């Protein structure tokens, strides 16, 4: 079996109702998918986190090192691509592009051996996983507090028992939204806050102390991710568990964060941290260090499926009867192609998501939807 060609698909849908995180405005939903085609007809799918055009260009550049190779040589291919791009590519687009390629290779391997990826990784610790709803962005042109309260209440009534909302717009305004949401959903629903590094350390400490009585499960990306010492400082100076990791790529970045004891919860994204190959090493490092892993997920059904394959294999921690499960981050904000590109969508049932057990990623791509949302390069 040899790799015959590597294709990229950029999906895009312009939003009628744009929304904001702390530093960006979403006028569209977009994604970069990787399709690797083998000479025997097997096809693997992957997805790259982050900016679509640079990801697609980098995947296409890397494809020159892929065509003609045995797709089952996943580790040698990973190392070869990383070595060739290392000098300028230890983090960022080179790693997100490599992640999409790596996921597609694992999809091919699973299909070749007719088993789900989690079997290739050594077997699943679980057949399903609880999910939390991600949403609560700042909508443009609407009252933020009421819109976020309504949105989160909708997630709870659809069965979720955990939700994450966006903050980082200003301490006073954010606190009003957090207080309002907690009041609306009651004490039993897990609530997380994500600042997308919209604060400095003084603001982050102020906000954390104010919202601590409102039962916040974690405080995500309070400050910019480059400054690991500041993260450690922040952890020591406020009461909430601190989470981050979606912008750290490769095991070396996670090694630095782990050694700095920068966070309580690590959030590697399989579509950004280096794919399944690298993420399993990051998971192992986190386990050794005793740091909880709750993966970051942001993308289409391909990203969700790849994350579910990883979630199946995360070791139960701590060892006890009925150990705590990891959680799937399940973006619920409007994205018409997220599930449409799958022949069989990945649903949640009362906030629980079944881990796909078909070959590879366990999904099949619905070509008409892929074509409908693809843009020409
Ligand atoms: Ca986040």
Overall description:
With 377 residues, the protein is of the alpha/beta class. It has helices spanning 52-63, 74-89, 93-113, 117-120, 144-157, 171-185, 201-211, 228-237, 250-259, 275-289, 301-313, 367-373, and strands at 3-20, 25-38, 43-48, 128-134, 138-139, 162-166, 190-194, 216-220, 242-244, 265-266, 292-293, 328-331, 352-354, 374-375. The strands form two sheets. Strands 4, 6, 7, 8, 9, 10, 11, 12 and 13 form a nine-stranded mixed β-sheet that branches. β6, α6 (171-185) and β7 form a beta-alpha-beta unit. Calcium ion binds next to loops.
CATH superfamily of the largest domain: Enolase-like C-terminal domain
Count every beta strand, where a strand is a DSSP E run of 2 or more residues: 14
Which word captures the global form?
Answer: globular
**How many domain regions?**
2
CATH class of the largest domain: Alpha Beta
Task: Describe the largest sheet.
Answer: 9 strands, mixed
Estimated helix fraction: 25-40%
Bound molecules: calcium ion
CATH topology of the largest domain: TIM Barrel
Radius of gyration: 20 Å
- What's the tally of helices? 12
* Spans where pLDDT lies below 50 across 5 or more residues: none
* Strand content bin: 15-25%
**Distance between the terminal alpha carbons, to the nearest Å?**
29 Å
Structural class: alpha/beta
Order of helices and strands: EEEHHHHEEHEHEHEHEHEHEHEEHE
Q: Which whole number gives the mean pLDDT?
A: 97
Q: Which architecture name of the largest domain does CATH use?
A: Alpha-Beta Barrel
């Amino acid at each position: 079996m040899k790799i015959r060609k590597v294709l990229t698909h950029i999906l895009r849908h312009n939003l009628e109702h744009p929304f904001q995180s702390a530093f960006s405005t979403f006028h569209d939903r977009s994604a970069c998918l990787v399709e690797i085609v083998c000479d025997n007809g097997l096809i693997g799918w992957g997805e790259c986190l982050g900016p679509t055009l640079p990801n697609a260009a980098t995947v296409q550049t890397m494809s020159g090192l892929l065509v003609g190779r045995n797709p089952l040589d996943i580790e040698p291919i990973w190392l070869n691509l990383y070595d060739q791009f290392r000098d300028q590519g230890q983090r960022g687009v080179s790693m997100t592009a490599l992640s999409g390629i790596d996921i597609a290779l694992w999809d091919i391997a699973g299909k070749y051996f007719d088993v789900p990826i989690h079997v290739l990784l050594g077997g699943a610790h679980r057949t399903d996983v609880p999910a939390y709803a991600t949403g609560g962005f700042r909508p443009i042109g609407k009252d933020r507090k009421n819109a976020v309260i309504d949105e989160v209440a909708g997630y709870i009534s659809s069965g979720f028992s955990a939700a994450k909302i966006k903050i980082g717009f200003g301490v006073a305004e954010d606190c009003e939204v957090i207080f309002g949401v907690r009041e609306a959903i009651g004490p039993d629903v897990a609530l997380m806050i994500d600042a997308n590094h919209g604060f400095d350390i003084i603001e982050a400490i102020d906000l954390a102390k104010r919202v601590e009585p409102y039962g916040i499960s974690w405080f995500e990306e309070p400050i910019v991710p480059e400054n690991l010492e500041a993260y450690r400082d922040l952890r020591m100076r406020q009461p909430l568990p601190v989470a981050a990791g979606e912008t750290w790529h490769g095991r070396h970045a996670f090694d630095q964060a782990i050694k700095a004891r920068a966070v309580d919860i690590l959030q590697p994204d399989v579509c950004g941290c280096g794919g399944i190959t690298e993420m399993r090493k990051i998971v192992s490092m986190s386990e050794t260090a005793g740091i909880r892993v709750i993966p970051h997920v942001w993308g289409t059904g391909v990203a969700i499926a790849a994350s579910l394959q990883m979630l199946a294999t995360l070791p139960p921690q701590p060892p006890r009867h009925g150990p705590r499960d990891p959680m799937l981050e399940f973006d619920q904000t409007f994205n018409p192609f997220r599930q449409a590109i799958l022949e069989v969508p990945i649903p949640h049932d009362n906030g629980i998501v079944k881990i796909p057990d078909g070959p590879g990623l366990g999904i099949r791509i619905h070509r008409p939807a892929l074509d409908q949302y693809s843009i020409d390069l």
